[in-house]
Automatic annotation (TrEMBL):
Protein family according to the UniProt entry: Belongs to the peptidase S33 family.
Domain of life: Bacteria
Protein name: Proline iminopeptidase-family hydrolase
Organism lineage: Bacteria, Pseudomonadati, Bacteroidota, Chitinophagia, Chitinophagales
Species: Flavihumibacter fluminis
PROSITE patterns per UniProt: PROKAR_LIPOPROTEIN
Keywords, comma-separated and alphabetical: Hydrolase, Signal
Span of domain AB hydrolase-1: 72-324
Length: 339
């Protein structure tokens, strides 16, 4: 009996040793899962105090992994969505030992919501990101900022104000000019829609009847599943639905405007095309062939910054990290590894 047990244990040991020597089979990097702070553990969650001209608030962050050399802070889009639609990053970045940090901007998700539209301001959000960076101890030796959609606008603005703190920058699915974005939506995306459907949408927008259920009923199959996330609505990932279900409409409308065809809010005249050469840190721009944003513009952006790379997601739309996932994450991880 004991001889048989010994034989089994020996066989297990041999198999385990062989697996460790096989290409592609790795032992987990235990240091990646070590706490970065002593004391009470909260799963990496920290509420960061934010100072504003109208008082102090707190924003929610959550660290995933532990890598002193590279930490990616995620800026969600909307404006007004939450960190939750980024949850697919958990299937890719930890395997490469890259730390990343979820972050709900003020007014979003788990963060405080002052319910005051004066807070929905681009410069104030830049100040907020800088306060979050300081609190988390991010610096030029480890700090990578990834902004998606509206988060890409915020990332560009942050880089232009504080790039001395950055190791790298990722601008995902966002153009450097809102007027150009609006023109692309009108001249290219609108023309791809059924003329009868477009006429009805135009009438609803002209009447400012954005709350009419018909508006979203038409946009969902004719715009969202073609240019936001190219999957049937019943197959949209749960983290996306959860995030979009918590959208801060006050923040969204104030900054973006109520229409899906271009920008009509505070960002209507935002344009940083001429300032892109001022960005000197390594920068990755990402665009999708079916994006709400012009992929040619995002490709051009990579030629304007000092050290730019463009990643094209041929099957992707605005959320290419879902509908062209392999291309998106292979390109992103390659960029991060080179840093």
């Amino acid at each position: 009996m004991y001889t048989r047990l010994l034989s089994v244990l020996l066989l297990v040991f041999v198999i385990s040793a062989c697996q460790q020597n096989q290409p592609g089979v790795h032992s987990p990097d235990l240091s990646y899962f070590q706490p970065s702070d002593s004391g009470l553990q909260t799963g990496g969650v920290r509420m960061i105090p934010i100072q504003t001209p109208k008082g102090n608030f707190k924003v929610w962050t959550k660290r995933f992994g532990n890598n002193p050399q590279l930490k990616v802070l995620l800026l969600n889009g909307g404006p007004g969505a939450t960190h939750e639609y980024f949850e697919c990053f958990e299937n890719f970045l930890p395997a490469a030992s890259f730390e990343f940090i979820y972050y709900d901007q003020l007014g979003c998700g788990n963060s405080d919501n002052p319910n005051d539209t004066s807070f929905w301001d681009l410069n104030r959000y830049v100040s907020e990101v800088e306060q979050v960076r300081t609190a988390l101890g991010l610096n030029k030796d480890n700090f990578v900022l990834l902004g998606h959609s509206w988060g890409g606008i915020l990332a560009m603005e942050y880089a232009l104000a504080h790039q001395e703190n950055l190791k790298g920058l990722v601008i995902s699915n966002m153009m450097s000019s809102c007027p150009d974005y609006g023109k692309y939506a009108q001249d290219e995306l609108a023309k791809q829609m059924d003329p009868k459907v477009l006429d009805t949408i135009r009438q609803l927008e002209a009447n400012k009847d954005f709350g009419n259920p018909k508006y979203m009923e038409l946009l969902m199959p004719n715009f969202y599943t073609k240019h936001i996330l190219r999957l049937p609505l019943d197959e949209w990932p749960e983290p996306v639905n959860r995030s979009f279900g918590k959208m801060n409409q006050s923040l969204y409308v104030t900054m973006q405007g109520p229409s899906e065809f271009g920008i009509a809010g505070k960002l209507v005249n935002w344009d940083r095309k001429a300032d892109l050469p001022k960005i000197t840190v390594p920068t990755l721009t990402i665009g999708g062939a079916h994006d709400t944003m012009d992929p040619e513009h995002m490709k051009w952006m990579a030629t304007q910054v000092k050290s730019g790379t463009y990643l094209h997601c041929a099957n992707g739309s605005h959320m290419s990290f879902y509908d062209d996932q392999a291309t998106y994450f292979n390109g992103l991880l390659d960029f991060l590894k080179k840093l």
